[in-house]
Amino acid sequence: MRTWFILCLALFLSACRSDDVFRGSVMPETPIPDFTLRDQQGEAFKLSEQRGKVLLFFFGYTFCPDVCPLTLSTWKRVEEALQADAPHVKFVYVTVDPERDTPEKLKTHLAVFSSTFTGLTGDSTALREVYASFGVYIEKVNIAASAAGYLMNHSTRMFVVDQNGNLRLLIDHDAPVADVVHDLRLLLKAKK
Predict the structure, then answer these.
(1) Can you list the domains of the chain with their CATH numbers?
(2) What residues contact residue 164 under an 8 Å CB cut-off, 6+ apart?
(3) Radius of gyration over every alpha carbon of the chain, rounded to an integer in angstroms
(4) pLDDT tens, 60-86?
(5) Helix, strand or coil, per DSSP, at residue 4
């Protein structure tokens, strides 16, 4: 009887971790309004021109001492783990510090992690609209005793937009690489 119970419990638990269930936080399919920002090459990046790809967004800055470089390191491992699926996913890093994050600075910084990552900046009005569309929190914190002058507090989740421009998932910045890859592949399979 005990063996039967253990077997049933194991089957139940494996069903709970189905390969068809997202591991990140599922969002109601919410269209992200179109926007245009500048990438690290100085070229226009228009959201509507990215249709057909799954987009993984993170809002951070190059001077960030902790969460941002850890997230970019995770992205590098996710990109490697995706293998043949990697060209169908676009990794998009939007600055929350346009005062310091010039296209050149973004280019140098992102190249440390991957030459395929896209860094975006723009004027404060355009960036504020994008932050609002995603519901991103940003706060500038002045630090008088520091050579940096200030740091930026900001949202630390990754935002996943599907092939049709809809926000679909929120993923914690410290999510396991396998979970991020799993969710991206699920969206890639669900082409509409």
Answers:
(1) 21-189 (3.40.30.10)
(2) 31, 51, 192
(3) 19
(4) 999 998 999 999 999 999 999 999 999
(5) helix
- Would you mind telling me the total number of residues written for the chain in this entry? 192
Task: Name the CA dihedral angle for 152, 154, 157, 161, rounded to a multiple of 10 degrees.
Answer: -100
Structure tokens, 49: 């021109």
d(CA 163, CA 89): 9
Q: Name 119's Cβ contacts closer than 8 Å, sequence gap at least 6.
A: 39, 40, 93, 94, 95, 101, 103, 106, 107, 109, 110
Banded pLDDT at 9 (limits 50, 70, 90): very low
- pTM for this model (two decimals): 0.88
CA atoms of 84 and 97, how far apart (whole Å): 33
